[in-house]
UniProtKB/TrEMBL annotation:
InterPro entries given in the database record: ARM-like, ARM-type_fold, PP2A_B56
Gene, per the UniProt record: LOC103519867
Molecular function as annotated in GO: protein phosphatase activator activity
Lineage: Eukaryota, Metazoa, Ecdysozoa, Arthropoda, Hexapoda
SUPFAM superfamilies (alphabetical): ARM repeat
GO biological process: signal transduction
Protein name listed in UniProt: Serine/threonine-protein phosphatase 2A 56 kDa regulatory subunit gamma isoform-like
Domain of life: Eukaryota
Species annotation: Diaphorina citri
Amino acid sequence: MVYSEYVPGPRAMLGLPKSPSFHSGLDLLADATTATPTAPLPSSAAPPEFPATNPFTLAAIKQSIIDFNLYSDISDMSSTEGESDDSALMFAGMQLPSLLDASSEHRDELFVQKIRQCCVLFDFVQDPLSELKWKEVKRTALLEMVEYLTAQDVHISEAIYPEAVNMMTYLFSSHVRRFLESPDFQPNIAKKYIDQKFVLQLLDLFDSEDPRERDFLKTTLHRIYGKFLGLRAYIRKQINNIFYRFIYETEHHNGIAELLEILGSIINGFALPLKDEHKFFLLKVLLPLHKVKSLSVYHPQLAYCVVQFLEKDPSLTEPVVKCLLKFWPKTHSPKEVMFLNELEEILDVIEPAEFQKVMVPLFHQIAKCVSSSHFQVAERALYYWNNEYFMNLITDNATVIVPIMFPALYRNSKTHWNKTIHGLIYNALKLFMEMNQEVNIGWEKERMRDRDLTWSRVEALAMKNPHYKPSLCNSSSSSQEYLGGEGEEGDGSLDREKIENEAYE
């Protein structure tokens, strides 16, 4: 029996075509032009064997069903060696008997044949109208197997496991998920076929450009992780390796979002206290993913994973926040908005004690964002003031936070070009004023002391100027003239209050 040409790359390792185009799991590509059927087996021959590494061609699967009917009593149809090729094709195009109609002793054997029948690959790109009869046969078989596996009283024998795993190498569709979710699925039997090699090849397929295929792969890998306890550590390790390669080498992988989505549910199931292995994964694998240029593709899933870790172990808040501030973008405004989104999610779950450890560097960064000339960055930062828990944290630590934030807010209320930002700033200032009057009064007094000290230094420098007027030495009031003559109007004299206001504005 001759099979189609083998496709190089990760797909070839599982027998998958290079660029599948999924239509209900039926339209995997194959080259059937090179396949030639062989003579039928005699009635006493053993069941035909199919290699697990090469894709079935149309001629091969036809011959499989012909051979099957030679040694099976399931169907009344038969074939002889003298049949013509046309008769063989006519026979091969007919459907196998229904699983429900077959006797119990032949049902498993019939199920195996239907699995093999579904391993045929069709061309849905160059000639989508070809082989319509066979495509319909395959579609019917797929639907029948899904219905059969969903039944509560179904029994899956050991002979079905290698065939089902082999079929996984050709397509990922609902019947594969139903097979793994079947109440009669036995991991102890399946682990002989679903091993580390299979998982590694499965992970390689996550780089597919087809989002539908990645979604099927995601569901399949998640089911494998849940049912095969011995493979869990290996799966996490191999996902780490994919992330390392993505961060430090290629910066390109199509399945990062799907892998992070799987990890989100895995992290949610971590037992407490967290192992050092899991903490290392957060700090050395997940957080460096923020550095990659294509962050926007997978950022929601990444932020969810980070928040899951902080909910599990609040003591990780300080290293996580400091790492985010370290990776904070300087010139990429859309990426900065994403960081602000993630930071607010972290603030929603942060413990007050952990907040106090990071509030100073955190609010220095928020003050920079509020002062940003990019209105989307400033707007996103000012939306924090609509968060009730955020305002409670500020109220409890107002003596530290207000002196950091108030100057940036006040200065931006005068200088920012966007009117929407002005409104948000005035709202934030109003909340500050209503929040704690004593804090604001104390901050204003401190500001006045700083102003007087600044002017004292200015006057000390002015005294060194040979054109300095001695009359200014005794001026302790802000209303006395500075740089003026005898105080006439229109002579350019200015008092300290005017200078300060103009400088501040």
